[in-house]
Specification:
It is a single chain. It contains twelve helices and 13 strands. By secondary structure, it is of the alpha/beta class. It has two domains: 151 residues, Rossmann fold; 166 residues, Rossmann fold (3-Layer(aba) Sandwich), CATH 3.40.50.150. A seven-stranded mixed beta sheet has the order 9-8-7-10-11-13-12, with helices on both faces. Strand 5, helix 4 and strand 6 form a beta-alpha-beta unit. Helix 1 packs antiparallel against helix 5 and helix 3 packs parallel to helix 4. The protein starts with 13 loop residues before the first strand and ends with a strand. One of its GO terms (cellular component) is cytoplasm. InterPro entries: SAM-dependent_MTases_sf (IPR029063). GO terms for molecular function: protein-lysine N-methyltransferase activity.
């Protein structure tokens, strides 16, 4: 994501959000904050408003036309952000700009992993903005970071979310007749893996750095212990029979790997098992900066061997995105 997109923004500029909800309000605030802009989000619009979407002192309406009609004098936004899943952006912009009191200077269109604004729609909006001398910027959700991404997109639309239990983990559990004991789902994301593990009979705790990632799943599945936690500075004080990591380690960055290993070992019971699924750096369709986060298979093997006993290790894939990976079953080394 280029910082150039935020050059025209001034501290104190007022922002309206198309596709509003309480989480993306927080996400947009963070997005501007990390780019050094202290903006004022006055509200937004959404076709079907839920009670949870309402925030004190923020104006929320069911359409762009209604929203801009009801914005008090002196509160008119200079910036409009259209979020993932926004529909009829061209219609909204026509309704906004036909009223001369609305002085929009910049719009942002955010494309999600699966909810992407059609290219034809972006072209039509671009032509309109050029005619009205409004700057337009498109931002890809994959470029905004993990925490902001979960605030701006439904976790069910994330490319790594699957509704079934990971195929490698399921195969190992079935082969070894494992269906009880305590399980930590580390970096749970939307929480689907944690729910499937509970359904198999395990006592499951699921953690993620971002509360919004699992918030809705946690409400529907109260038998799983969902917690916001950072593995590198974990507040957990329980030891587990099993830990499942499906993509957490490879997202941390290599400088944090050693601390990760020490923290995971502190959470495992003696001879407890870590199930680790890790994307390797031979996924050449990814950009160089992303691949720099990942080890090769040999590097991963060397790292693992310093901290764990390898029970099983095999080549695999993250099936939902067809990324090459290594699936490992690792035992905490006994202490004497």
């Amino acid at each position: 994501m280029s910082a150039k997109a935020f050059i025209e923004i001034k501290n104190g500029d007022k922002v309206a959000i198309g596709g509003w909800n309480s989480n993306n309000y927080k996400g947009i605030k963070k997005l501007f904050d990390i780019n050094g802009k202290d903006i004022d989000i006055v509200g937004g619009w959404k076709e079907a408003i839920d009670e949870k979407d309402l925030i004190d002192y923020k104006l929320v309406n069911e359409s762009a036309a209604d929203f801009f009609q009801k914005v008090p004098d002196g509160e008119q936004p200079q910036i409009v952000v259209f979020l993932t899943g926004s529909t009829n952006i061209i219609k909204d912009m026509e309704n906004i700009t036909k009223n001369e009191k609305n002085k929009i200077k910049v719009i942002f269109i955010i494309s999600g992993y699966t909810n992407r604004v059609p290219l034809q729609e972006i072209k039509r909006v671009t032509i309109l903005c050029r005619k009205l001398e409004i700057k337009i910027h498109t931002i890809d959700l994959k470029d905004v970071g993990y925490e902001i991404g979960y605030l701006l997109e439904d976790s069910r639309n994330m490319p790594w979310t699957i509704d079934t239990l990971d195929m490698d983990l399921l195969a190992y559990l079935q082969k070894n007749n494992l269906s009880s004991g305590s399980f930590l789902d580390l970096g749970t994301g939307s929480g689907t893996q944690a729910v499937k593990l509970f359904e198999l009979g395990f006592d499951v705790t699921a953690t993620d750095l971002v509360y919004a990632a699992f918030e809705e799943t946690a409400k529907r599945n109260t038998n799983v212990h969902f917690l916001q936690d950072d593995i590198l500075n974990t507040g957990l004080n329980k030891k587990f029979d099993y830990i499942f990591d499906r993509g957490c380690l490879h997202a941390l960055g290599k400088p944090h790997y050693e601390r990760y290993a020490e923290k995971v070992k502190s959470l495992l019971k003696e001879e407890g098992l870590l199930f680790l699924k890790y994307a390797t750096n031979d996924n050449f369709h990814l950009t160089e900066d992303v691949l720099s986060y990942y080890y090769s298979e040999n590097e991963l093997n060397n790292f693992i061997s310093r901290h764990f006993t390898i029970v099983e290790m095999k080549q695999s894939i993250f099936e939902e995105v067809e990324m090459k990976s290594i699936f490992s079953v690792l035992m905490k080394k006994a202490t004497h």
